[in-house]
Every structure is written in C-alpha cells, then in structure tokens.
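re the bet — no i am not wrong, look at it urself. input seq straight from the record:
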Amino acid sequence: MLSWWLIAILASLALAGFFYLDKLILKFVKKLRKKLHPVVDKFLRAISFTPFVVFALYIIPTIFIILKMENNIIWSSVATLTLACLLATGLAFVMKYTFKRVRPLGNTTYLGEIDSAFPSAHISVPSIPAFTISTFWSVFSVPIFVLAGFVALSRMYLELHFFSDVMGGILLAYLMVIIVLDSQILIFLGF
C-alpha cells in the first residue's frame, strides 16, 4: 500500500500551500462565502462539526468493517483504524504545539488560547478510515473519501484551516495507516 508518489504529491501540495496556495485559496474562499446560498453554509458547518466527523467517519466505518468483512480481517482492520486514529490525533496535537501556526481567522480555544492549525486533525481522522478501508476493501472506501473531502472543504470554507493544513492532515493520516500496517505493532498487539 505504500505509495511514494502519493506521499510526494501530498508533501508537495502542503509545501505549495505554505509558499503560495494558502493565500490564493483563502482569497477565493472569502469571495465564495459571499456568493453561496445559506443552505450550503449550514451544510458545511454541520459536516465540520466534530461529533459528526467522529460518528460518520470513524464509528460508521468501524461498524461497516465488523459487519461486512471476513472474520480473519475484521479485528486487524478495526485495530488498524483505531490505532492509526489514536497515533494521528496524538501526533497532530504534538505537531500543532510545535509549529504553532495561527489559523486563518486566528481562532481561540475554549481556554482562551490561540489554537494551532497545522496539521488538521479534523481531516486526518476522517482520512484514516478511508485509507484503511481502501486497503482491505477498496470499493467501499469511495463514500468515505468523498465525506472526508467535504470535511476538508468545510474546514477551508469556514477559514479554520489553510490548504496546507489540510494537505498536512491527509499526509499524516496516510503515514499513520502505513506505519500501523507495515510495522509489527499489530502482531505485537495480537492481531
């Protein structure tokens, strides 16, 4: 499953975002927000809501895996999904506090502190089920990739993340799935 091309493309897009695309896309989003119908705005706000992301893009794929896959693959794929999500979330927050990149709107957390933007944990978590299911049963990963794409668009539309933050989140998700699948972690854990 390791694709050096995908890693190179995602890393290049993240770097292009840092140096040029972030500002360009942010200008486009600001113009777009004025023109879109309020229903689209409500849809993008709803799809970006954290409980929706966790439920629709982690819990539902886990249930799907349990119901649809053969017995020998079920627990290793659920373990991959869960472990990769935990690793990606943890690493995303370590990276956030390392880079301390201000969000496009300079949002603050509920603690009153400036919240860091890079990489987007909101997009890394929904990307992990898509990459995991594509490894075990690729046909059913398409709807999850589409939903993850909508989450990515919503984060940029709401000006909570730059384009490079989103690309960094997707790259982080892909790397965590690869690390979990290609390492001995699952064997060590008994899967």
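see?? Residues 4-188 form one domain. told u. also The mean pLDDT is 76. so pay up
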